[in-house]
Specification:
Elements lengths: L1 E8 L6 H13 E10 L13 H10 L4 E5 L8 H14 L4 E6 L4 H11 L2 H9 L7 H11 L6 H17 L6 E6 L10 H10 L3 H4 L5 H7 L11 H15 L15 H11 L6 H5 L6 H13 L3 H4 L5 E7 L1 H10 L6 E3 L10 H18 L17 E2 L3
Parallel strand pairs: 1-2, 1-4, 2-3, 4-5, 6-7, 6-8
Antiparallel strand pairs: 3-6
Length: about 400
Amino acid sequence: MVRISTVICEFNPLHRGHEATLARARAETDGAVVAVMSGNFTQRSECAVFDKYKRAEAAVRSGADLTLELPFPWCSAGGEFFALGGVSIALGIGTDAFVFGSESGSVDVVKRAAALADDTSFREYLDSVTYADSGAAKAYDAAMKSFGISLGSNDKLASEYVRAARRLSGKQEGPSFIPVKRICEEGVYKSASDIREALFSGRGAKKAKEYISLASASAYWPENGCEADVNPRRLEELEYLFFRFFASHKDTAEIFDGGGGVTERLFSAARASEYPNDFYRLAYTKKYTNSRLRRAALFAILGVTEEMIKNPPLFTRVLASNKKGRELLASNRRNSGITLLTKPSATHKLSKQALAQYELACRADELYSLCLRSGTAKGSFLRRVPYSEDV
């Protein structure tokens, strides 16, 4: 048994498959189950369907003891830096084991992929192959397959957790990694992407609730609702306007993940678009994935550079907890390798570098607030307090 098990997650939204992962984490630990969860933006650089406090509450209602924020920009980064952010927070509070969803259900596959990705010969092989028309992600997959390894998206991300844990801890054998094989039982389980699509479709929103547990639904809809918190089109409109009217090539020259012609593609698409909903349709090519384009656009609006993201987060915000989670917080407060914030007034504890990270994360929250279906005043997320469950 382990003292602390952690699930790095988005829970966008939390569904029955996620509950199974939390249940496995609970079974593996005699201490606390921690969710290190993306803030208001996701790895696809889209707005989360429900704000981070609602999703954190759903996590605690569904089996986690403590939900900590994976702040922006790590929550919207590619696998390597998403993992860097999540693993560093988890190790900072003393995590013994990582529990993750997996297509293969095999920790050996994940560890083999991690070892191969760190191997110099693999890197040289990957650099020697040109996939100009398919992009880096497909090049990586093809290179892995050439070495006999085929990875689903969850396994690929888990391999980055292994790599990050080894790099941050300086140990080949650090925390445990426990896979939970993904369950696909028709009529019982739906993926988060399927549920999001239903929520945004309007007519399918009520149907989507069938695949969300009552515990989660009570956090998302305190009253009898069935809508998402956000209108995803608003972020697209803001990104389109940014590249059409406000940004210059000089402004975006140092944006992380904007190289290789990505930002130039976004400028070109913005000029060619008659309407905001044309923007990503015109920008898309086989070379640049949709998530790569959206990440570059979001990072451009908020001014994210490589310098900002290559180092791990120095802080995290507590979003939700129960009694056991608060006991963990109390025991970690002095010994934690990361600053745990429970309220905005605690920012005096932050170093200069950590404060700069915090301010960037707050700007991301302000952008998210502009995309909510119901308008909200500036600074609304600064006034939110963590969800607290008594049991």
